[in-house]
Design a protein that fits this description.
Blueprint: H1 2-8, E1 10-13, E2 23-24, E3 30-36, H2 39-49, H3 59-64, H4 74-78, H5 80-88, E4 93-101, E5 110-123, E6 126-137, E7 141-152, E8 156-157
Antiparallel strand pairs: 1-3, 2-8, 3-5, 4-7, 5-6, 6-7
């Protein structure tokens, strides 16, 4: 039940067309996913992470701190990146992630996470992939910028399911 509810919260969007031919990851390829974070997401993330900063729960506190309203946890937004990678490369080992938080994200805003392959190299029958990682709101406003490294067992991308 919980897994079904978690999966139903994702809107999944791919940057390539569906075909029966396996598609290999190449430098420049972009994988993306959109998501709106809800009050429940904030509560569940806070419960798991023990991050109870009032910026996420108290509108008045957030406004007094200079924000429009309550904020989505930055690390919750950044969790889109390993999700995108693992959905195309099951078993991927996430090695590192750098993040720069550029703009606040408010509950209910649509966020588009984009992961772009910038470097690929083979090492002992596995692949080390470097990705540019970015999140946008309102289609073009950069909210998170960074880079990730992952170890992939293959460069063959899984199409996955479109989740609604």
């Amino acid at each position: 039940m919980l897994l079904k509810r978690l999966v139903s919260n994702f809107t999944y969007s791919l940057s390539f067309s569906s075909s029966s031919t396996p598609r290999l990851l190449e430098i420049g390829d972009v994988l993306k996913q959109s998501r709106k974070f809800s009050d429940l997401d904030i509560l569940e993330y806070s419960r798991l992470s023990h991050d109870s900063n009032p910026l996420h729960f108290d509108s008045k506190f957030a406004r007094n701190a200079g924000f429009e309203d309550r904020l989505v946890h930055g690390m919750l937004i950044a969790s889109l990146f390993p999700r995108i990678i693992a959905s195309h490369f099951p078993g991927a080992v996430y090695v590192s992630q750098s993040l720069q938080f550029k703009l606040p994200v408010y509950i209910g805003e649509e966020i588009i996470g984009k992961v772009q392959a910038v470097n690929l190299r083979e090492n002992k029958k596995r692949f080390i992939a470097k990705f540019s990682t970015k999140c946008f709101k309102n289609g073009e406003l950069l909210v998170i910028d960074g880079e990730a490294m992952a170890i992939l067992s293959t460069l063959t991308r899984e199409q996955g399911q479109i989740m609604e």
